[in-house]
Amino acid sequence: MTVGQSFRFELRRIYWTRQCLRMLFALSAAWLFGAVYLFFTSPRIGEIGAGTIGAFIREVFGGLWVAIGAPAAFIVMLLVAAFVLRRGDLRRRDPQRRFTRYQRREGMTRAKGRCELESRYGKRCTQAAEHGDHFYPWSKGGATSLRNFVAACSQCNRRKGARIPSPGLLRRLERRRASYVGAVLVGERRGR
Ligand SMILES: [Zn+2]
Questions:
Q1: CA distance 61 to 168
Q2: Which residues lie across from 97 on neighbouring strands?
Q3: Residue 23 has what pLDDT?
Q4: Is 94 left (phi over 0), alpha (psi -120 to 50) or beta?
């Protein structure tokens, strides 16, 4: 397996893992809200009002706890997973964040001074490049290397932010780069 292929596999794994986690989180949150809503609108709530305030609070919280237990446990599990991933990202951070002057010059020349990201529909942006951007975000362990350098206009740079790029964007960028510079690998993530 070549270096480029291994990054491609790595990106696919990371991207889809995090998409799944995000989706599970959204589902768990909806489940939690649904459980709380159903609990407070259930006819049982109206019936407990009779006893003392202490008994009422005990009943409500005891019942609520049972109602939200499962989705709450799920959310806690997902938060733990997110925490572990984030700690891994922090450990991988490149001590050098800014690209060197050499890397910027080479990267900009390679892109022919034009933004390499996409404006719309998977087409290359037409703006002039102004920034050197980490293809795989620096904050998530992306290397400050020429391989991970993409030339970007300020608009694309801002839009991309620190999100992990999709495997589709990697594929299109590699294909486009092949047409203007020959085969050049895109993206690099630091090891542990
Ligand atoms: Zn652009």
A1: 47
A2: none
A3: 96
A4: beta
Is there a contact between 111 and 151 (Cβ–Cβ < 8 Å)? yes
Mean of per-residue pLDDT scores for the chain: 89
pLDDT for res 163: 93
Q: What pLDDT, on a 0 to 100 scale, did the predictor assign at position 91? A: 93
- Is 1's pLDDT higher than 60? no
Q: Say how many Å lie between the CA of residue 113 and the centre of ligand 1.
A: 11
Domain map (residue ranges) of the chain = 3-92, 101-181
Give ion ligand 1 contacts, CB < 5 A.
Answer: 115, 117, 125, 127, 153, 156
CA angle 87, 77, 66 (to 5 degrees): 155
Q: How far is the CA of 93 from the centre of ligand 1 (A)?
A: 25
Ligand 1 center to residue 166 CA distance, Å? 17
Contact 119, 148 (CB under 8 A): no
